Amino acid sequence: MRILKANWYPPENEELARLFGSSVDFDIDPTPTSPDYRLAGERSAAADALINCSATLPVPADLDDFARVKIVVREGVGYDNLDLEGWGARGIPVCNVPDYGTTEVADHAIALMLALTRGTETYDRLLNSDPANGWSFSRAPLVRRLRGATFGVVGLGRIGLAAARRAAAFDMRVVFYDPHLSNGVELATGYERVHSLHELMSISDVLSVHAPLSAETHGFIDAGAFAAAKPGLILINTARGPIVNLDDLTEALRDGRVAGAGLDVLPKEPADRSHPLIAAWGAREAWIDGRLVLSPHAAFYSPASMKDMQRKAVECILAYLNEGRLTNCVNRQFLKTPLRKAS
């Protein structure tokens, strides 16, 4: 069995070969950019399964390529960079790995919140630049008490629920908006539920985004949402960059409706220095100083989560090709031909 891992990025998990032995031949793309998969047709034609390692770079579902591929796996949670309908039209299931970094992303969301509300990033930077004059507790602009504050969650899935549990441990009031969850989830979790984004914006002191990127959520948090926000809102996004309209966030930060933002993801990655918000942050302009914290789409990462992600992607493939057992399929509605059955 040959698995092509495209859009690869380090570190490589050397345990994969040991775990799966000689039954799996890994063809690992050595570059972190979208390659020419064809290579005169050799690589794509030889692959029995395809893994896309990147969260942003696409792999096309060209009809002339990947003739032997029977399953495609996004090595991660998000799958918006894969052509679900195109692969489905070929009868090829697309799957993801939703359960490898749940705790890391939830931890990171809380860490971004704390960096702003406890001023840790600002204090460290000021002390580093001037240890004497930076020795001041009042220089971080967004320090506040979290106990009793409202933590709003957009999307109470695996990661959203994990983040909510962590916020509750800080004695925060947890409120969520998720139109895709059935009635009664609020009773099972003990968290409050609202039925519109604007209502959630209006009561949240901290808003944490944990929704997948889709046609429904693209640009979901926009000028209208920010207009409804409770004054002093802090926005945290560890989901997908395009869910938040960055231009509208810039204006909301400028006019003070939004107090601060912690962003692990951006609409364009790496960060686009030409965007006014990123440029102002980079120049440490007074109006944004201490109010914006960025990280490089790293919320998912820990050495342990990377190993889990890579292992689980291969396990998903083996379960399907060896047993006919399909897990975490995200394009069932587009599959046009019957799935393969275990022999």
Automatic annotation (TrEMBL):
Domain D-isomer specific 2-hydroxyacid dehydrogenase catalytic: 42-331
Pfam family, one: 2-Hacid_dh
Protein name: Phosphoglycerate dehydrogenase-like enzyme
Domain D-isomer specific 2-hydroxyacid dehydrogenase NAD-binding residues, every copy: 110-299
Keyword Chloroplast annotated: no
Keywords, comma-separated and alphabetical: Oxidoreductase
PROSITE patterns: D_2_HYDROXYACID_DH_3
Family classification: Belongs to the D-isomer specific 2-hydroxyacid dehydrogenase family.
InterPro entries: CtBP, CTBP_dehydrogenase, D-isomer_2_OHA_DH_cat_dom, D-isomer_DH_CS, D-isomer_DH_NAD-bd, NAD(P)-bd_dom_sf
Lineage summary: Bacteria, Pseudomonadati, Pseudomonadota, Alphaproteobacteria, Hyphomicrobiales
Gene3D superfamilies xrefs: NAD(P)-binding Rossmann-like Domain
Native species: Kaistia defluvii
Domain of life: Bacteria
